[in-house]
Amino acid sequence: MNKEPIYLAFSTQKGGAGKTTLTVLVASYLHYVKGYDVAVIDCDYPQHSIAEMRERDLKQALGDDHYKRMAYEQFTRLNKKGYPVIESSTEKAIDDADRITGQADFDFVFFDLPGTVNNPSVIKALSNMDYIIAPISADRVVLESTLRYMVVINDVIKKTGVSTIKGTYLVWNMVDGREKSELYEVYEQVIADLGFDLLKTFLPDSKRFRREQSALHKPVFRSTLFPADRSLIKGSNIEELTDEILSLLKRPNNG
């Protein structure tokens, strides 16, 4: 195998922060639009949200002529299948990732991890990431919880000397455009004082992030089989976020 895959996780201990949605959106954009080879390890037991999403996506793609045609046209154009979604656990996550990367070339392996650092197997998985990106929102409880989480990653896991972590970042998610910018400035000063890196791109609070394949055949945004539809991508900042991640990781922007 010629490629050295990047192990990356959108990770936080706050439920509902959007880590699973961001994993799917960025993985699909990199795989289907940017031409990278991607895999996803879903070890967020017991829900396994991404593995369940893949099952729903496949069922609809196989049973609905509209999505069947979309999948065929995409495969014909790209000559590549959907990326693998491996249902795993925190105990087996790294072994499963090493196994599939030993069988085929991947550029990125995304991990959907449980939101806790109290479990030794979660700590082991986190310590084997190359990059960790934690979504945050302008909510004091969410922000304080995520900052404590990142302190553990940076001051405990990263500094043990046995970690492969090369970078940790925060990203604003579910940003309400009606909120005063002064609020974000205050929070960003706190983030800077703690020495954490914050991505320039932010993700807006938008219902489009929940739009999956449906019998109504509306443009799809969140899918494991298709990238976000071009009619919905503008203003979502998914394209900008993906470009910023590629730049930080010093990977070519193939778009």
Notable characteristics:
7-stranded parallel beta sheet, alpha/beta, 255 residues, Rossmann fold
Could you please describe the fold and organization of this structure?
There is one protein chain. This protein has 255 residues and is an alpha/beta fold. The chain has one domain (6-239): P-loop containing nucleotide triphosphate hydrolases (Rossmann fold). Helices cover 42% and strands 13% of the residues. It has helices at residues 19-32, 49-63, 65-78, 93-103, 120-127, 140-157, 181-193, 230-233, 238-248, and strands spanning 6-10, 38-42, 85-87, 108-112, 131-136, 167-172, 197-198. The radius of gyration is 18 Å and the shape is globular. The mean pLDDT is 92.
Mean pLDDT: 92
Q: For the report, how would you describe the main beta sheet?
A: 7 strands, parallel
- General shape: globular
> What is the H-and-E element order?
EHEHHEHEHEHEHEHH
**Strand order across the biggest sheet?**
3-2-4-1-5-6-7
Catalogue the unreliable spans: none
CATH top level assignment: Alpha Beta
CATH topology value: Rossmann fold
Percent range for helical residues? Answer: 40-55%
Radius of gyration, whole Å:
18 Å
Secondary structure tally: strands: 7
Q: What is the name of the CATH superfamily?
A: P-loop containing nucleotide triphosphate hydrolases
Number of domains: 1
